[in-house]
Every structure is written in C-alpha cells, then in structure tokens.
Amino acid sequence: MDFGLANWMCVFVRAGALLSVFPLFSSRNFPIQVRLALGASLAFLVAPTLTPAPVAGLSLGAAITLIAGEVGIGLVLGFASRMVFYAIDFAGGIIATEIGLTFSPNMNPFSNVQQDSPGLVLYFLAAMLMLSLDLHHWLLVAFQRTYQFLPIGHAGLREALLEDILRRASGIFLLAVQLAAPIIAVSFLMSLIFSVLGRAVPQMNVFVESFSFRLLIGLGVFGLTLNLMAQHLLNYLRRLPDDLLRVAQLLNVG
After folding, report:
1. What is the pLDDT of residues 59-111, one digit of tens each?
2. Which residues of 192-210 are buried (b: 16+ CB within 10 A; e: fewer)?
3. Of 112, 125, 117, which Cα lies nearest the Cα of 95?
4. In whole angstroms, what is the distance from residue 88 CA to residue 73 CA?
5. Torsion angles phi and psi, residue 252, rounded to 5
6. Could you say which DSSP state residue 106 is in?
7. What phi and psi values does residue 57 have, to the nearest 5 degrees?
C-alpha cells in the first residue's frame, strides 16, 4: 500500500467516524451512502495536504490498531460537536415538565425517537442556526486543521482529555438550565401564587385549576424567550470549531 492510499484510508475512517455522530449528518433520514461519499470526498481533499502516514513496515495488528485509533479520534470529535444537542434534549425535558407537556411527545425526524415538543422546537432552532450561519462548514474546516495538532498515529488517552470531557459534560447541564431558566422562574411563581390561593380558598382544587394556567403562560413565555434561547445556542455553537481543535490537542500524546 503506497503512502497516498494510506493517507486517504486513515483520513476516510476518521472522517467517517466523525460523520456517524456529527450533528444533522448522523440523522436517520440522512442516507448512509451520501455520508460515505461525503467522508470519501473529504478524505480526497485532506489527504494530499498531510505528511505520509507511518504505515511502512507495520504488521497487520499494528495497522488495525492505527485504523482503530483514527476511528476513535473521529468518534471523540463527533461527540464533542454533538454536546449542544444533548443539552437541548435536557432543556426540552425540563421545559416540558414545568409546563405540563410531557404527555404529548412527538417524533423527531432527525433521530427517529420521541421527544417533547419544546425540545423538538429547540432542536430545529439549533439546526437552522447551524446551517444558516455555515457552522457545519466551519466544523469541517476545523476537522482538517485537527491534523496540525493530531497527526495520524499520534492519538492516545490522557488525564487532561478526561478532565476536559467531564467539564464539557457539566456544561451540558449549565446550558440546559440557561435555556430553561425563564420557564423555571415562571413555573416557580405560578406554584407560589396557587399555593397562596390554596391556603386562602381551601375549596379550590389547586392542581386542576393551575394546570391550564401553567400551560398557557408557559407557552407564552417560551415563545417570547425564543430569541434569548437562540442567543445562548449561538454562543455555544460558535465555539464548536475551537472545541474540536482543543480536543485534538488533548488527544495528542506525541
């Protein structure tokens, strides 16, 4: 196997693993053939810019280990780029619980799983922001730049990488709370008001009476604060290319 084919194969498996979990491209309704073609095209563009892959004299086991390492790199990079959508799922669950929409889940066409309505709205909002601002293109550019920090065959696990992943996982909860904060605040005020009414008018069925008010006011606040939620999502999405480069640096063991 010559060096050019080795480079292409190593880039292809890294790109294919990235696209298998990459936001939007990994959706169920995105054809696998198109995903493979995109990975192959990306490999054709990136491979000629790299130094020859260290495959000369490798045994079969060492070659498999090298390919497995490239697959692992792609999966870690894809996981880092998907975290914002994990935060959206969490925020959607919080909002649906607060306003009482947990009993009406809808099918998410991207992931083919049932999701609460607020989470689905936020998912589409993040997808539109990502595509309209060409952030998916910037993420692919960042993928090409990862080879400057993480050449082929130089990946490994480090304690700093695990700490960074834990920090990003905690950031999921922070972003979810930021997105759901207006709804949480309104829900708290509604609970406080109806608790006082329940004490003042014991004959009132507080739970039944508060349900419709909680739903209507919650939906109103959700609609009015979508612009604020979009800003939080945009601030996170803009950092994704730099996050991929940071993860690539932490994966490099020299």
Report:
1. 778 788 888 888 888 888 888 888 888 888 888 888 888 887 776 666 666 66
2. eebeeebeeeeeeebeeeb
3. 117
4. 24
5. -75, 125
6. E
7. 75, 10
Dump pLDDT digits (tens) for 192-239. Answer: 887 787 777 777 676 677 777 888 888 888 888 888 888 888 888 888
Q: What type of residue sits at position 12?
A: F
Total domains, the chain: 1
- How many angstroms separate the CA atoms of 191 and 189, rounded? 5
Q: Going by DSSP bridges, is the β-strand pair 106-108/113-115 parallel, antiparallel, or unpaired?
A: antiparallel
Q: Measured in Å, how far apart are the chain's first and last C-alpha atoms?
A: 25
Which structural domain, as residue segments, surrounds residue 232?
3-251
For every residue of 55-109, DSSP letters joined together read -TT--HHHHHHHHHHHHHHHHHHHHHHHHHHHHHHHHHHHHHHHHT-TT--EEET
Whether the CB-CB separation of 95 and 116 falls below 8 Å is answered with: yes
Three-state DSSP class for 107?
strand
Both structure tokens of 21:
């979990």
Question: How many beta carbons lie within 10 A of that of residue 15, not counting itself?
Answer: 28
Q: Which residue has the tokens 């491979």?
A: 47
Q: How far is Cα 214 from Cα 220, in angstroms, rounded to an integer?
A: 10
Q: How far apart are CA 38 and CA 19, in angstroms?
A: 9
Give the sign of the dihedral formed by CA 5, CA 8, CA 11, CA 16: negative
Token pair for 29: 């309704």
Tell which phi-psi region holds residue 100, choosing left (phi > 0), alpha (psi between -120 and 50) or beta.
Answer: left
Place of tokens 């053939």: 33
